[in-house]
Amino acid sequence: MLNLRWLVVASIGSLVVAPTISKAQVADSTRDKPQDFVRDVVRALFGPNWNLFAQGGATTSDRFLLEQAVNPVDGQRALQSATGFAVGGGAGVDILLRTGFRASYTYASSKLNYRTNNGDGSKALNIDDVGTLKSQTLALELIHYMLPWRATINPYGTLGIQGTWWLLDEKSPLVTGVGASTPFSVSPLFSFGVQLKPSQKWSVRLEATLSGGHNPFTGNKSFRSAAGPAIDEPSSVNHTDFRLAAAYYFGQSKVTSTTPALTHE
């Protein structure tokens, strides 16, 4: 998971810092080339560059705890989440030719399971659906497109920060939220994906998002597990989301033609 995380970060970094040189970009109109940073950003914020989007997909997490069974002879088991779902929406604005911001809200839910962790393929300590772990997340991201944002097919990467609130729906006495305040964490997030833009008003995004954050099962006022003594309590847990989003643009500036007008004598 760590190697994958660094691979993703490196991929995003290449999108953000590497200049993209193409004939299409050279042919862009003078209007689209930023001449004054402040002027162009202000013009974009008050111009027809805003969009609203809705998104949904799947979410996965690292394990939250590794515990010794009550009877040590039985071995170890891990508390982890099954693949769950995530839905949300937000708003974005393209402030420069290849750069924008977006803010979003995401609600996610996944079942908690115990899985045997003896390394021998045993399922003796497996317990399904001991609870449902839910989260609500607010995020703010800088998005950088590889091509101008009007491009029909456009890879992109994002870098941002998010705040997450965790909730626990208990279904077994083995996990409990009694005595816990609502765990909250602030963490960075990284995304990479591709935007498909079939029209001026609509676009579709396919993306993967990686984030970390405080483990809601670690700390003085965290959720608790009573399945056995803890062997490993990671302070942070990585999360991966795979999303499909649809965005609606409120309007687009007209593209100034670069073809010289014909004159008649």
Describe what you observe in this structure:
- With 265 residues, the protein is mainly beta.
- The chain has one domain (2-14, 50-249): Porin (Beta Barrel).
- It contains 3 helices and 13 strands.
- The protein has helices at residues 2-17, 23-26, 37-45, and strands spanning 50-61, 65-68, 76-81, 84-94, 99-116, 127-145, 153-170, 175-176, 184-196, 202-211, 224-225, 230-232, 239-249.
- Strands 1-4-5-6-7-9-10-13 form an 8-stranded antiparallel barrel. A two-stranded antiparallel sheet has the order 8-11.
- The longest helix is centred in the N-terminal third of the chain and has 16 residues, at 2-17.
- 28% of the residues are buried.
Q: Quick check: average pLDDT? A: 82
CATH class: Mainly Beta
Total strand segments: 13
Measured between the Cα atoms of the first and last residue, the distance is: 69 Å
| Strand neighbour order, sheet with most strands | 1-4-5-6-7-9-10-13
Order of helices and strands: HHHEEEEEEEEEEEEE
Indicate the structural class. Answer: mainly beta
Low-confidence stretches: 12-32, 255-265
Question: Gist?
Answer:
The chain has 265 residues and is mainly beta. The chain has helices spanning 2-17, 23-26, 37-45; strands spanning 50-61, 65-68, 76-81, 84-94, 99-116, 127-145, 153-170, 175-176, 184-196, 202-211, 224-225, 230-232, 239-249.
